Structure formats: structure tokens, C-alpha cells
Amino acid sequence: MVDTQKFAKNLPEQPSGDNALQPGSVLQNRYRITGVIGVGGMGSVYQARDLRFPNVQRHVAVKEMLNLTTDKSMRELTLRTFERESDMLAALSHPAVPEIYDYFSSKDRAYLVMEYINGRDLDAIINSMNDFLPVETVLQWALELCDVLGYLHNHQPEAIVFRDVKPSNIMIDQHGRLRLVDFGIAKTFQVGQKGTMIGTEGYSAPEQYRGEASPASDVYGVGATLHHILTRRDPRLEPPFTFAERPIRNINNRVSGEFDAIVMKALAFDAADRYTNAGMMKEAFEKLNKPVFSAFASQSTGEKAEDLSEWGTVEEGVKALWRFKCEDEVRSSPTVHKGVLYVGAYDNNLYAINTADGTFKWKHPADKSIVSSPAVADAENLILFGSVDQFLYALDARVGQVHWTAPTGGPVQSSPRVAHGHVFFGSDDGNLYAVRLSTGRVQWKWPAGAPVRSKPLVTDELIVVGMESGDVAALDLSGQMAWRFRAKRGVTSSPISHEGIVYFGSLDWQVYALDIARGWKVWTYRTNKAIISSPAIGDDKLFIGSVDGSLYALDLSSGKERWRYETENQITSSPAYANGVVYFGGIDGKVYAVEAKSGHLRWSFTTGGPIPSSPAVVDGVVYIGSMDHCIYALKA
Amino acid sequence: MDFLRRILGKPAPEQTQETISITKEPVEPPRPPEPVIVAPKAEESNHQKVNTVVVAPTDVTPTVFDTVELGGTRQLPPLEAIVPKPGQHLRVGHLSDVGMVRPNNQDSMFCLVGASASHENLPELGLFVVADGMGGHHDGEKASSIAARVVGQYVINEILLPLMSNQMNDPDRPALTEVLRAAVEKANEAVTEQIPEGGTTTTMAVVLGDLAYFAHVGDSRAYLISNDGIDQITRDHSLVQRLVELDQLTREEMIDHPQKNVLYRAIGQSDNLDVDTITRRLQPRTRLLLCSDGLWNLVADDTIKETVLHEPTPQDACNKLVKLANERGGPDNITVILVQVPG
After folding, report:
1. Counting C-beta atoms within 10 Å of the first and last residue's C-beta, which end of chain B has fewer, N or C?
2. What's the rounded Cα separation, in Å, for the pair B175 and B277?
3. pLDDT in tens, A223-276
């Protein structure tokens, strides 16, 4: 029995050097000590020769346990427990359980004599590998490990829980067979440790810290051990219970989705969510191990694999409530207000559509296409939108008639913002405009020095706007500049603010968080391509898409990536957050609904063309336009 | 409707009749105001310079605790504080105490506050660090001292000096959160190199105007306290905290758990340290509290809140909190920094 790792790692204090048996000493007139296998504070493990077999070299392992309890009756109790457990172990019969030959005790020590296993423990094996172990080897070990634990769990009259499944307690012997060592008898002799310590055990199930252990706790230990082997990431060096944050297949892509899923199920925090015992986990592994013969079987496993790789269940049949076909591509994002959806299209029209049934209400043509998203001025009953024809239009929301227009010197691609009785928008003529809603009169314009295509952010005190030059400026409401920040490339992404911080993306690939009062950088996060998408906020996260194809969820207050969801093409659509779900469109033509908490896909819906449009989510319905000319209303 | 006044800016002739254009004829406003870019305006309060700083004798009289004096780590001398007029500047109290049981104080702390009144509208600024060391043979106190000093030095170099030389808007400057993270990483390098057997927690707050930036490793804590409640900003990097987060342990079970002192992250543990960073807006009159576990292990959050809100000054509150922990046995070192936000 060789558990040197355990002794060396967990008990760094003074080894019992003074008391250790010297080679040559003989115990019980039978076991001559030939060497020390491991030393620890609780006692040592020795290699010994059994003198009853004088003509052959028969080696045994002798485990010595110091009885450190000072109280006399407690010492007695400890000893009785030791004897009872030794008896129980001796009665076990399984090829992976080392044989127990003998036990005895002296005044302050107890000894257990057992089969000497010639081999290496898994901890040593993992540490000596420069690459991942072959998945087939690991699968074989998983089967053998589950087999022996399953044997213990089925023990009558009651299940035996191993309690300490981890690589250093698992050996691969000289014949390549897996053996389970250290049946936790040492625990009986352990005394509590005091003082602040760094480092955790890494493989124990959460409930074991409540003093509870069941066969499902061993299942967790198997999961933790396999996760360590497959990823080569030592859980003792990671925050406890964070296996799910290191997805196996992200680290080792040779592992199949099915294998991954079995390990992750074993690692569920709640014991009830795991395999009930190791036997059931073994069954799952056996299914995986079975070669597939029939076409039917291969088809069914194939489907399953896809499900697992998509992170959980994908709801089929997301119902499109209705769709509305425009005369050309829809790149603008819809705005929904009081039962009416307003959206601009490449056919130059601004459409008003009834959200209840997708029926046409009115449309109004501009001279050129509409790529920005309309804004609603509720009190004035106006719909405002810009067009490539250089005008900002204010239409009567009821009938779609022009109330006024405001000319600029360039295409208006910036979406207008309505606030404080004014509409704020930028133009490719390099100005930011503030126009009175009631009159259409330009109150002021501010020379931005470069085209303004982002939608201005307006708070009670400030206007923050991004420019194609990469500048981001904050103006007070009279158009005086408060601060200016410069990104390395254009800022088309529209800033949003939350709790004193303003957030936006840039064509320089970065997401920026700035102190809104001063423009100082709070944090930045770099994606792998340009960012056109505007951020959305929810669940203490910032959501933003990148041309690199991923939708990112970043922690609002630190900028740390919480998760990312990869699509098949660019994301230029801005996400929308509602009720724990993030919705966005992809250039791959799909509308995605992703769980804000986990980043797991809830559903996706395929349209007939790329989707640069951003969704509007109102009352459980997602409205979004596609370059297939259609506006879709989907059940959220 | 103040914003209306501001939005209109300089008086512009109000049109008597609304211009309604149903054609696309550009309607030029009669006289669009010329956009003018000016330097940021100083806040109004800054014009009242006369009353800003009042030097007054301290109203702070730290209580002397009935603990055995042991070495030089007993407690700090009373503060000779400049007490600013309430409501305009950060006010700070702090105390680090050895407690009732330990022979030495392994906690360290660092405090720096800047107040200004000037046309340049410099923000209120503060730098606060609490570190709780661990390790035998004085390694604990050495580790925490190094950590507190190194993070302080780094933040002064990378934030406070650039701020004083007006370089904060330089787009190539690292983000503030990154500076704080790097500061803790520097401390980790220094401790790992100089005190290989020691470790320490580090919880730091940097206040710049109405934003507070935190960096954190270990189980010292930062709280924001107001009349609305007490909000723990940092997350303990302890095994038991993780179990509570996973609903595998109740808060009650956590208090007496045999492994409640097991941290999974601390300075001096490994080369690649994962530092938590947090940014929070400070509402007017909020209190920011940093403390070691010698306080929060013994004094319940509600009691901390009541004490902080009811004591007349931040220093009084610090003294009272340390006293409460000592009255409950003071088994560990106790370090408290309390900052009161103006407003």
C-alpha cells in the first residue's frame, strides 16, 4: 500500500522520524521492515518481508498509525474502530481492493498488514505526463474505478462509502490494473487542524463538508479525479467546486461530448443530481464504450452528442408569431411603442406595423435608405428617424405624416435619442445635433470632427457620443464638452451607462468602461475582432457582440468575461436583455436566445438572411428584422 | 426643469411659431448658436473655497483597551486628524489592534486621503489597504506589511502621480481596474520572493470622485454601509464561503465550521494569482468599511452597520468596532478602516 503522496502533501509537519522503524526491525516476529514507502505525521507506511515464507521474497505493506489521542477512553474507542474497520476490509473480495493479511496494535500504534502493490499512483502518473493521457486509457480506468466503487456501494448489509476518491488513492499496478488504496482508516486517528490555511482538498463533494457522505459523494470524487486527468488542471490549485468553469472539451478536445457529460453529471453540486452510485455511473460509461452496430443506434447517439455539445436542451419549434415582408433588406432595428412596431428598410420606407398580428399600419418613404433605428417621442406623438438622404424625419406616429424634418450635411446613420424635449443625433457631416421636438429647430450642433454614427447617450447631466474617429466625447446639455476619450479606432457602438460608468465597444476590438464624470478608463476588455454592436446590461453583466462571432457577457464592475457564446459568423446586431435572457441576431442568419446567467442556448431561430438588426423585446415577444426583407415576431 | 435651461444654453431667440415642414426644404434655424468647446466647468461647490477646510482639534479620543501590551504592534496612537467641514470631503478613521489572544499583530493597513478645492475639479481621492498575514515565525506580519506597502506604492505611482500631473485622460494608460489588479500582483511577487513561507490577504479600495475601485484576495472584507443597509462588496475566497454560495452550507453552519479558516486564494500562494476587481458608485454619505476577519468573525453585519451609522465620527466608529470584537474575546487581530463619503 503506497500512499506517499497523501502523506507528503497533506501532512507537511514534522514526520515521525524519531519513532520510525528502522530497516531490519521485526514486527510480531514475522514482518521484517525492508524500507519506508511513505512518512507522515500520523505514522509511516513500510515495505516489509513476510518471514513466514522464508524461501521466497514475499513483500507486504505495513501501515503504521500513531494513536495520538491522549484521553484513555478515547484511545480505546479509536482502537476498537480500527479493528472493526480492518475486519470489514479483510472480508472484502474484489480484484481492485488490496488484500488485508493481518492487523495488530501496540501501546500507541496500530498496524495493518496488506498486499504490497507494485505500481504508481495516479497523482504521480498525471504529474509525469507531458500530454493528455489517451482517452481510451482513461475510459478503461473509469470503468474499473466505477466497478470497484460500485462493489463497495452494493456491500451488504450496508453500502461502504470510500469517502476519499482522488488520484493519490488510486494506483495502477505493474499489470496495468487499477487498484484502490487507503481505505480511510487513517481518518480514525486524525486530529483537527487549526489556524488559517491555504489550499483545499479539491476532490471532496460539497456535502462532505457538512459531514455527510453517501455513494453519490464517491461519484463526485470519481468525477473530480477524471476531470483532473482529462484536463491536467489540478483541482487543489483552483477555487473549490469550479470544475464546470473549466469545461473539459475546451481544454482537451479529444474527449467526446458524451464522456464530458458523464463527468459533469458526476460533479453536480447537489448529490441528488449525480449518479446515485458508482454502479450507475459505470453503466453510463459502458454505453459509451459499446461499439455501435445498427444504423438506428448510431443515429440516436449522434443526436445525443449534438444536444450535449450545445449545452443542454434546445427547444424545438420556437414559434414565429408572424412575419412581415418589406420590399428590401431590413438592417435597421425595430422600435416598439404602444402596440406598434416602427422599422426602417433599405427600400427607403419607414414602416409602422401592428404588433398584435403583424398587419401593415402605414409607411412613409424617405429619399434614400433607412439604416438607423427610429425613436419615439411619446408626449409629442412623434416617430423620429434618420436617413441616408441626410435628413432627420419627425413623423406623426398615428398616421405617418411628416411633422418636420431637419437637414444635415451628410447621411444620418446615427439612431436618434429623445430626451429633455429634444432629439439628439449625429450625422456623417461630422456634427452632433440637438433639435427641439416641438419645432424641429436645431438648438445647437456640436462639431465632432468626424462622422457620428452611434446613438448618443443622454443622462440628466451629460450627452456621451462616439465618433468614427475613435473619439468619445461627453458634453453637458448646452453642448459644452466635459471630457474626451480616444479609442484607437471608430466608435460606432452606442454608449450606455449604469451606476456612474459608461460602456461602449470600438472598431479597435475593445470594450470600454469609463468613469462617466471624467472619462477615465475603469476597465477594458479585448475581443478578437472589431465591435459594431452596442452593449446591453442585465444580471450584473454587460452583453456585447463582436465581429469575431461571439456574444460576450462581461462582469459590469470588473470587465471579467463571465461567458461567451460562439455563433457561426459575425455579430453586428446589438443584444437585448429581458427576464434573464439575452437576444441577438447573427450574420449567420439566426436569432439567438441565450441564458444570461450561464450562456447556455435557450433557443435559436433561422431566418432567410443575415441579421445586422437588433431585437426589440416587449411583453414576451422578440421583434427583429433580417436581410431576407422580413420582420419577425418570435415568442421570447 | 433645470435641464431645459441648460439644454438651451445661451439664450436663443424663442420662435413664436412652430416651424412645420412637410416638404424636405431645409429649414435653417434663425441663428444656430455657435458650438463652443470649453474646458470642463468647475463644480459650483468649488467656488466656495473659503469654507472648505477647517483645521480643528481632533474630536477623536480612541478608547484604550484593557489588553496586555505586547511589543510594538499593540495599536496606533490617537489620530491628530484634520477634520474637514462635514459634507464636503472624505472623512476617515482607522485602527489596527492585536486583539486579546494573539501575541502579535499580523494585520497591516495603509491609508491615504487627498482632499482639494480648486478650479481644476480634482476628485476626492483615497487609497485604503487592509492585509491579514498568515504564517509562523513572524512571516505573517512580514507578508502583510510588504503587501500593504507594495500595493500602496504601485497605486501612488500609477494613479495618484499621473492624476496630479493631469495625465489620466491619456488613452494609453492602463484602465484603473487593471492598475489595481497589477498592484496586487506586484504584492504577490514581492511576498512570494521575500517571505516564501508566509501569505496574506489583501483588500484595497481606491476612491476617485464618486467611484470606488476595489481589488481583493482572501477573506478580509469591504462593505458599503448606508441607512439602506450594509452591502458586502468583496467575496471571501474561503472554502466555507464557496459552500454557502453553492447552497451546500448555511450561514449558521459556516460560523463554527472546522475548516472556516481554509482559504483557496491568497497572496504568496502561487505565481498566477486571480485578483477580484470591483467598481462601485458611492452614493452621498455612504460609508466604506475595510476590515480583517478579526472584526467580521465576531461582530455581526447588523451590529457593524448600527455602530458605523451611530458613532459621531469614523474614528469613533473604528474604536467602537474594535472594542466590540475584543469584548467578544478578540481571538484574532482586528483591523478597521472606515471612510465616510461626502454629501
Report:
1. N
2. 12
3. 999 999 999 999 988 888 999 989 999 999 999 999 999 999 999 999 999 999
Give the C-alpha distances (Å, rounded to integers) separating B127 from A113, A553, B340.
61, 30, 13
Instruction: Name chain B contacts of A200, Cβ cutoff 8 Å.
Output: 239, 262, 264
Structure confidence by residue, pLDDT tens digits, B116-175 = 888 888 899 999 999 999 988 789 999 999 999 999 999 999 999 999 998 888 888 999
Q: How far is Cα A116 from Cα A37, in angstroms, rounded to an integer?
A: 10
Pairing type for strands A197-198 and B262-263 reads parallel
Cα dihedral across residues A163, A165, A166, A172: positive or negative = positive
Nearest CA in chain A to B122: A518
Positive or negative torsion for Cα B215, B219, B224, B228: positive
pLDDT of residue A198: 54
Q: Do A402 and B38 touch (CB under 8 A)?
A: no
Contacts of B28 in chain A (CB under 8 A): 442
Q: For A181-199, what is each residue's pLDDT tens digit?
A: 877 654 545 444 444 555 5
- Position A477: which residue type? L
Annotated catalytic, A428? no
Which of A440, A478, A560 comes nearest B21 by C-beta? A440
CA distance B260 to chain A (A): 8
> Which of B27, B175, B265 faces A523 most closely, judged by CB atoms?
B175
User: How confident is the model over A13-39, as pLDDT tens digits?
Assistant: 334 445 678 888 888 889 999 988 877
User: Measured between alpha carbons, how far is B267 from B144 in angstroms, rounded to an integer?
Assistant: 9
Q: For testing the chain B interface, which of A241, A444, A463, A476 should be mutated: the one with the most B CBs within 10 Å?
A: A444
Q: Do A522 and B176 touch (CB under 8 A)?
A: yes
What per-residue confidence (pLDDT) applies to A82?
Answer: 79
Give chain B's residues under pLDDT 70: 1-87
String of b and e for B165-194 (b: at least 16 CB within 10 Å)?
Answer: eeebbebebebbbbbbbbbbbbbbebbbee
Residues in chain A with CB shorter than 8 Å from the CB of B249 are 206, 209-210
Residue B18 to residue A438, Cβ atoms within 8 A: yes
What length is written for chain B?
343
- Cell numbers 463538508: residue: A209
The CA distance from A289 to A282, in Å, is 10
- Of A556, A567, A543, the C-alpha closest to A617 is A543
Q: Which three cell numbers stand for residue B156?
A: 501612488
- Cα gap A49→A32, rounded to integer Å: 5
Number of CB pairs < 8 Å for A and B? 211
d(CA B290, CA B94): 9
What's the pLDDT score for residue B8? 52
Residues A10, B265: Cα–Cα separation, whole Å: 17
Are B3 and A439 in contact (CB < 8 Å)? no
Question: Scanning the structure block, which residue is given the C-alpha cell 484593557?
Answer: B66
Instruction: Find, in chain B, the residue whose alpha carbon is nearest to that of A199.
Output: B264
In 3D space, the residue among B162, B160, B139 whose CA is nearest the CA of residue B151 turns out to be: B160
Quick one: pLDDT at residue A36? Answer: 86
Helix (H) / strand (E) containing A337: strand A335-337
Nearest to B281 by CA among A540, A516, A496: A516
Name chain A contacts of B2, Cβ cutoff 8 Å: none
Tell me, what's the ipTM? Answer: 0.76
Per-residue cell: B206:
481606491
Q: Which residues of B touch A406 (CB under 8 A)?
A: 26-27
Which of A123, A164, A389, A428 is flagged as catalytic?
A: A164
- pLDDT by residue (tens digit) across A479-499? 899 999 999 999 999 999 999
Low-confidence residues of chain A: pLDDT under 50: 1-17, 186, 188, 190-195, 292-316
d(CA B25, CA A526): 45
